[in-house]
Amino acid sequence: MRPCLSLMARRGIRLDSVHYCGLEEELQARRKRGSFFQKQTSPLEIPEHRMRLLYRTFQENETTATLTNFLKMPYMTRETCKQDLARLVSLLPNLRYVDLPDGVYQDDSSCASLKAILYTRCPDLRKMTWFGGSERNFVDLWIEPPWIGLEVVELTEMKVENRDLVRVLSSMPYLTNLKMSSMPWTTDAIFDSTTTDVGLFPALQALTIEDTPSITIDGLTTHLTRPIVSETLKALTIADTSIPVHLLHQILPLATRLTSLSIRAQVSRTIPHLDVPLLASASLTHLAYEITDDDTSTKSLAKPSPSYYTYLFESLWDGGMPKLKNLYVREPTFHTRFQNKKASAGGFAATGWTREVYLHTKGMEHLEWIKYSIGDVGGGLLILPSSKGGAGSHASFLVDPSDGSGGGYCGAGFLAIPGEAGECTPGKRERRSRADLWR
Description:
Blueprint: E1 5-8, E2 12-15, H1 24-32, H2 46-60, H3 62-67, E3 70-72, H4 75-80, H5 82-89, E4 97-98, H6 102-105, H7 112-121, E5 127-131, H8 135-139, E6 152-156, H9 162-170, E7 177-181, H10 193-196, E8 206-210, H11 217-224, H12 227-232, E9 235-239, E10 260-267, E11 286-293, H13 305-317, E12 326-329, H14 335-344, E13 357-361, E14 370-377, E15 380-385
Parallel strand pairs: 2-3, 3-4, 5-6, 6-7, 7-8, 8-9, 9-10, 10-11, 11-12, 12-13
Antiparallel strand pairs: 1-2, 13-14, 14-15
């Protein structure tokens, strides 16, 4: 049996998912009745056999092992074959990215040997994640960094003091992409060098802040006032934080190189329309603007979220984002705002819309993004529904913001991590046997 391998850009290997039909258990029972002397292999053991065959291949071909930078595999394979994965990794000195079991990110004892091998045998790793429970290991990284070339770091539910966080991050000279999710101890102090006294928060190309309420608009503006930061940051994601949506206008003028902005928030009150400057950015090309009503406003007669989309539309119509190409909103009727504006402007020639924008809309009850092309044709505004699907159906678009997996957007300077082929959204397919866990 040969391992099912897929070469990725000549430097990566992917173990494909094991696919089973609905009759696999019945077929397996029939095979067992074939011969008394023939040893039958359980389908659930196939991933383990593949790992061992790949290990033997690396042993016999050192050149292949040296050239391998990416190692991809399905979730269940890496979770159940931890020892085999540790043996594989020990033969790959130039590994940059590898799919790892969750225990590695949490300092679980079952993954101690695998993580020790990553420390000693894989100094060129470019992406690593830490979950809650691995705080002690993370805080000690600055003393003797095991992966000096880290470019992408994800921190989730980590209870780390501001001073320790900045000290570790500043010890990573090549860090470009940082995601902080559910960080209860992290405050605006990480952006103030006089408070931490251990260095400066790094200038990043991509910064994601999720569910971290102690990061405020004041902290972000302080961070962006540093010239190196404002000229480096290209992608910013703010999700479920205490940063008010109507204060985004303070951030955009400071981030002079920002090309991608994603904002996700639940609101309970309408936007304070008076004296709120419109959104304006000379560099923004991708905007994901997902504003929804929170639980306290679902039963009210007047929903607050439409006021935020009115604010966004006025910013667009005013010409504040001249380079915008891709717009994602959670208001399914957002395109009608353009139609109504066109009618009220007295005809096509009076609209003043001089560019083309790809609009993707989706309501709370929708599963897919609906795409519209909004552009100027012969001096008139043209609004056309495009092909069904949204970002997933068009290779030119960067990301589907509803994905939530962290993969998809890969701008200049980001680590391009090949995706797993054949992955499906949970819940779309009914599992009929234990073998389906390996899909």
